[in-house]
Amino acid sequence: MVKQNPAAEPRLDRVFAALSDPTRRALIARLDAEDALSVSALAQPLAMSLPAVMKHLDVLEGAGLIARSKSGRTVTCRLTAAPMEDAMGWLMRYQRFWTESLDRLAAALEAEQP
């Protein structure tokens, strides 16, 4: 069994929980395409209320995936993708497992062909 850093597990849980929702993934994609966007600009194309968007942004901020700053009455969001590195590291371990397993399967199938 692979040992993980116990301190990283709650952080990893928050990242995966935040990314589990399609609306939050859409918000992340929009912030990836733009340097920074106001909350109202992020909410504009979504078919939900501004308070609902704010709740999604709270989850993303709690996971460390976005940072908010306020200038006057405008709240701007920026992507802070560093927490995704922990998630990618976790996923990469399993990618190696599946890649090795599929490579063995392909080799076995090729060995059976006449």
Quick recap:
This protein is an alpha+beta fold.
The biggest beta sheet is recorded as: 3 strands, antiparallel
Give the topology string: H per helix, E per strand. Answer: HHEHHEEH
3D shape: elongated
Highest-level CATH class = Mainly Alpha
CATH topology: Arc Repressor Mutant, subunit A
Please, how many helices? Answer: 5
Distance separating the two termini: 39 Å
User: What structural class do helix, strand and pairing data support?
Assistant: alpha+beta
What is the fourth-level CATH superfamily?
A: Winged helix-like DNA-binding domain superfamily/Winged helix DNA-binding domain
GO molecular function: DNA-binding transcription factor activity
Organism: Falsiroseomonas algicola
Domain HTH arsR-type: 4-99
Protein name: Helix-turn-helix transcriptional regulator
Walk me through the structure:
This protein has 114 residues and is an alpha+beta fold. It has one domain: Arc Repressor Mutant, subunit A (Orthogonal Bundle), CATH 1.10.10. 63% of the residues lie in helices and 12% in strands. It contains five helices and three strands. The protein has helices at residues 8-19, 22-33, 39-43, 50-62, 83-112; strands at residues 37-38, 66-71, 74-79.
Give the secondary structure arrangement, pairings included.
Layout: H1 8-19, H2 22-33, E1 37-38, H3 39-43, H4 50-62, E2 66-71, E3 74-79, H5 83-112
Antiparallel strand pairs: 1-3, 2-3
Main features:
single chain; three-stranded antiparallel sheet; 12% strand; 114 residues; alpha+beta; Arc Repressor Mutant, subunit A
